[in-house]
Amino acid sequence: MKLYILLYSALLTAHLVVGQELLENGGFENGNFKGNWRCGGCTMEQSSLKHSGQFSVKVTKRTSSSSGPVQRVKATKGAFYEFESYVQLLNDQVGVVQTRLEAWRHVRYADGKDDWKAVAIGPYLRSTDGWRKVGGSFRAPDKDMQFLEISLRGPDPSVSFLVDSISMKLIPELSGNWKADALQRIEQIRKDDLTINLTIGSEYNLDDVEVEVKQTSSAFPFGGMIKARQIVDPNQIKYRQFVYDTFEWTTISNALKFRMMQWKQYPIDYDTPRLAIEELLSHGVKIRGHNVVWGVEDNVPKWLKTMTADQVKAALDARIQGVVGTFKGNLSHWDVNNEVIAGHGDWFEQNTGDRYITEKMFQKIHSIDPDVKLFHNEFRVINSGAITDAYVDMIQEYKAKGLPLYGIGVQGHLPVGPPDILKIQQNLDKLAVTGLPVWITELDIESSDVAKRGEYYEDVMTYLFSHPAVQGIILWVWHDNGKPWRDNVNLAQGNGDAFQVNAAGLRVRQLLKKTWRTNVVQKPTAHSSTLRLRGFKGEYTITIKNKGAPVTQKSVTLGQGGVTTSLQAGSLSTTTLSSGLTCVNRWSGFSEIGDDKPVAVPCGKGEIMTGCSSRSRDNKENRDGEVFGWDPTINQRVCKAYNGHGSTAPVQAIARCCKGPSDLQCSYSSSQVSAKGDGEQAVRMCPAGSVPTGCTTHNYFAAFDGSFPKMNKTACVAQNDGVKGGVFSHAACCKANGLQCVVKYSDRSGDFRGNITAVTCDAGYTITGCNVFNEFGGTAGAFTAILKQTYQLSHQP
C-alpha cells in the first residue's frame, strides 16, 4: 500500500517545480545585488557558507522584524506560483526557545493600495539547525497590480541569517477535465470487485427470488463535527438523527479541549465529553479526540499562564494522564497539539524551555493508550499552502525519530469563492510524499449562495475523495447551531423541531449516501449462479429474498483485493461454516409470578454461552426480557430472565450453549439505556474481531419490540415500545478461527396470542442464538427447538 501511494505521489508531484525561474540571482552567486535584491533596513553581503553553489547571502544589521532581502517579480495576476528558499540562522534571539522566519509577498494594486501576505513559513528555527527550507505555494491576487515583491523576514531584529537557493516558478493551471480524472481515480482506488456465488434451493421459484446487495458502511471515513451537549439533548432529536444517518465518524468540537475542561485547574469536567462519547459509541460512531492541548496562547488555560516552567510541565503531565487515561479505548484518534505551525502554537515549548515537548507528548500519550492513532492538525494547508513545506519537514523528522505519529491532520476552512482545486492538489501532493495518511479534519466552505455552496462542496469532496493520500474527511461547521452568522458555511440550520437540511446539505448527503455507496438488486438467472459487481469499499449485507421477504442474509467486508463469498437459500447442500460447532439449549426452572421476578440458567461444563432468550408460559407479553448475567455463587455466566408487571404466569430463561472450536471465546456487554419513546433504539457494539452470536433486550416496564443483530455493524440492537423508560441492549460477542455468522428471518406470525413462526438454518450452520422482534411490541418470547434447529417465536396481540 505504501508503495502504491509513493508511486502515485511521484506521478503527481513531477510538475510541482516547473516554468521559467522568475527570481534573479536566487543563488547569490553574483555579489552585485543591484537590479535584483535589495535589503530594507539591513545589510547584505556574500558568504561562502552556502546551501548550494559557491555563495549565499548574509543578512545582518537588521533594524526591524520585517528587515530582509526583497526582490520585485514580474508576476501575472491570478497565476499560481511555487516558492522555495533555504535559510540558516547565525544567532538565536535571547530568551526564546526558537524563532520563525517567513517569506512574504507584497502587492501594490493599480489603485495604489498595498497588500501583504505570508506565502511560506519556516517555524521554530535555531542556529544549530543548519540549513532549513522555507517554502510554499500561493496564488497572486486576481487584480491589476503595479508590482509584486517577495521578501524574507520575521525574526527579531537581533537575529542575523543566511539565505540561499531562492526560487519562484509558475505552476500551470489544471486542465478542464480535472473532475473526469478525479472520478476515474475514485473508480480505481475507492472500489473493488465483489463476487457472490449463489445457490437457490429448488423449492424456490426463481421468478420470486431477488438478491439485494446493500452497502451499510463505508471503508472511507466520512464524518462531521458535533457539539457535546447537543448530541445528548432530548430536544435535539432531528439533529441527532441527522448525525447518525449521515456520519460514521465525528469530532467533538470543544468538550475535550484543555481550556474547556479546565476553566479553573479544578474541578475537571469529564462528564460533558463522557456523556457525548457514550452516546456516540452506543450508535457505532467512531470519534476523533480534539485535542489534548492547543499550544496557541489564546487557547491555553489562563491559570496555566501564571505557572513556572516546572509547574507547567507537571500540569501538562496531569492533563495527558487524565484525559488520555480516562477515555482510553473510546477514541480512535487524538489531535495532540493543535496548530503547532500555522497558529504559532509553540506556547508549551516557550514556557517549559523544552524545544521537544510536543514530541514528548506523542510518546507519553502512546505509552498510555498504544491503540489510539495520533495526529498533528494544521490549517493554512489546502486553503493557503504557506505552511505545507514546513509541515512536511516536521512530519519527516517525526518519522526519522520513530515517533508515534500516525497521520496528518489538514483542517480545510476554505474561503469565499470557487474552490482552488489546483491549490488543493499541490498541497496534498506534497503531503503524500510522506507516506502517512492525510485526514481532512475540519472541512467547511463559504458561500452566501446555498446552491453554489453545494456545488463547491461537491467539487472539493470529489477531488479529496479521489486523492490516494486522503484517508478521511470530517465536515466542520455543517450546522449553524441556531446562529444566523454561520449561514454561509452550513449544510443545515435550526434547533429542535426547526432543524432542517438545506440544498447544500442535501447535495452532500447525496454524495455520502447515494453516489459513493453501492446498492443493487438483481434476480438470479439459475439456481446456481454467480453475481459480479464493482462496489465501493465497506461493509455489506447480502440478502436473498423470496416474494420480498428475507430468506437468508450474510455480511461481508469489501476491501483491497476484492472478496468472493457464497450464499445459499433452501435445501441444497452447502459448505459447513460452523467448524464443528455444536449447540444445545439449557432451560431454567420457572420464575415466580410478579414484577421483576428473576430466573436464571447456566451452561453445562465445557460449554460457552452464545445466546439467551426467554418465554412467558402463558404466551402473554408481561415479561421484562433477559440479560447475560453472572452468578457469583457458582462463579458462572447465566442467562437471566425477568418476569414483568401484570404477569399471570412464570417466565423461563433459555441459554444457548455451544462447544466446538478450541479457540471459541465470548464476551458479554450491555449498552446505555435508550431514550424513552416508541421505536427508540439502544445499540451495543462487539469488539473488533468478534460477531454478535446472541442479542437480548431488557427494560423495567415490559414494553419493548425486541432485539436483533446487525452483522454489518457487529452490534446488537434493542428497540423500545413505550414511553415510561428506555431499553437496554445486551450482546454475546464471540470469536473463533473460521467462525462466520449469518442472520435468518422468519415470516411474520399470525396476529393472535399463541401464534408462532419459525425459521430454519441452512445445512452446515448451527443456531447460536435467537430472539423475537415485532415493531408493534407484544411478544411472548423465543426459543430454539433443538431437533429441527428452528427458532420458534410466540406472539401476543
TrEMBL record:
<protein>
    <submittedName>
        <fullName>Uncharacterized protein LOC106180638</fullName>
    </submittedName>
</protein>
<dbReference type="InterPro" id="IPR044846">
    <property type="entry name" value="GH10"/>
</dbReference>
<dbReference type="InterPro" id="IPR003305">
    <property type="entry name" value="CenC_carb-bd"/>
</dbReference>
<feature type="domain" description="GH10">
    <location>
        <begin position="210"/>
        <end position="523"/>
    </location>
</feature>
<dbReference type="InterPro" id="IPR017853">
    <property type="entry name" value="GH"/>
</dbReference>
<keyword id="KW-0677">Repeat</keyword>
<dbReference type="Pfam" id="PF00331">
    <property type="entry name" value="Glyco_hydro_10"/>
</dbReference>
<keyword id="KW-0624">Polysaccharide degradation</keyword>
<dbReference type="InterPro" id="IPR031158">
    <property type="entry name" value="GH10_AS"/>
</dbReference>
<feature type="signal peptide">
    <location>
        <begin position="1"/>
        <end position="19"/>
    </location>
</feature>
<keyword id="KW-0732">Signal</keyword>
<feature type="active site" description="Nucleophile">
    <location>
        <position position="442"/>
    </location>
</feature>
<dbReference type="InterPro" id="IPR041254">
    <property type="entry name" value="PCSK9_C1"/>
</dbReference>
<dbReference type="Pfam" id="PF18459">
    <property type="entry name" value="PCSK9_C1"/>
</dbReference>
<dbReference type="InterPro" id="IPR001000">
    <property type="entry name" value="GH10_dom"/>
</dbReference>
<keyword id="KW-0119">Carbohydrate metabolism</keyword>
<dbReference type="GO" id="GO:0000272">
    <property type="term" value="P:polysaccharide catabolic process"/>
</dbReference>
<keyword id="KW-0326">Glycosidase</keyword>
<dbReference type="Pfam" id="PF02018">
    <property type="entry name" value="CBM_4_9"/>
</dbReference>
<dbReference type="InterPro" id="IPR008979">
    <property type="entry name" value="Galactose-bd-like_sf"/>
</dbReference>
<dbReference type="GO" id="GO:0031176">
    <property type="term" value="F:endo-1,4-beta-xylanase activity"/>
</dbReference>
<keyword id="KW-0378">Hydrolase</keyword>
<comment type="similarity">
    <text>Belongs to the glycosyl hydrolase 10 (cellulase F) family.</text>
</comment>
